[in-house]
Amino acid sequence: MANIIPIEKLVEKICCPYTKEQLEISENSLVSRKFTYDIVNGVPNLISEGQIEEVVKGEITGNSFVETQEEKIHYANKFETEQEHVGIYYTERDLDSIVPILKDLDHSSVLFLGVGGGMEVRRILRRGLKIEQAYCSDLVVSKCQVVPMTLKEFDIDIGVFASDMSYIPWKGTDTPVVIYQALHHLADEYLDALSRMFSSNYENIIIAEPCGNSLIAVLATQVRQLNA
Ligand SMILES: C[S@@+](CC[C@H](N)C(=O)[O-])C[C@H]1O[C@@H](n2cnc3c(N)ncnc32)[C@H](O)[C@@H]1O
């Protein structure tokens, strides 16, 4: 059964996304010198309204569609039942490429960003990868709350927090970071997000995104075949 990592342990791994300071627990919030972040039903919301781009505000509005308990249960099971959706969206090839990359790294802890309800984590774990701690973050708190439901069948520790992937509230640089089908939601701002990620010196960032350019798509397929 999946265990939720308590806030007291989680706070050792995360930091203020904007100042990179250590966060302190204060009643039902996490605080840095400048910012206060609410903990919403156990999920720290590490986003400050005043710091986010317009495109990100739009994403929060557009992705806040799992609010009630029924909606969360339905969302956690969504790609389990809608088979045709699985075939289109969760391409087996993408996940089959990610798993060997993670296998070659220390994958005892993995940080998943833009994780939604955690469906790609479930599909990665079902491929037999033994991750001990999955840290899962999405922009939207209510989606983060779905993650423990999605991963309930696994013996794993899960740390969940909301964050904007342009400002990653993560202290360590050696934990592999996986971004699956989420970076493109930043539209033109994705380059800023990438440059911030690279300047944070994360050792391994694995990104799987849709490709709208057919030439690049063909080249990517060739590279994949060369690697196979
Ligand atoms: C297409 S969904 C993919 C979710 C998940 N990775 C999956 O494959 O099921 C894109 C997700 O990115 C999240 N998202 C959009 N902009 C984001 C941002 N700036 N930071 C973090 N997550 C973001 C959305 O809330 C949404 O859950």
Short description:
With 228 residues, the protein is α/β, with parallel strands linked by helices. It has eleven helices and ten strands. The protein has a single domain (49-227), classed as Rossmann fold (3-Layer(aba) Sandwich), CATH 3.40.50.
Report on this structure.
This protein has one domain: Vaccinia Virus protein VP39 (Rossmann fold, 3-Layer(aba) Sandwich), CATH 3.40.50.150. The protein contains eleven helices and ten strands. Strands 1-8-7-6-9-10 form a six-stranded parallel beta sheet. A four-stranded antiparallel beta sheet has the order 2-3-4-5, with no helix packed on it. A hairpin with a 4-residue loop joins β3 and β4. The model has no long low-confidence stretch (mean pLDDT 90). The chain has 228 residues and is an alpha/beta fold. The longest helix is centred in the C-terminal third of the chain and has 14 residues. It is globular. Helix content is 37%, strand content 18%. The site of S-adenosylmethionine has 21 residues, from α2 and α7.
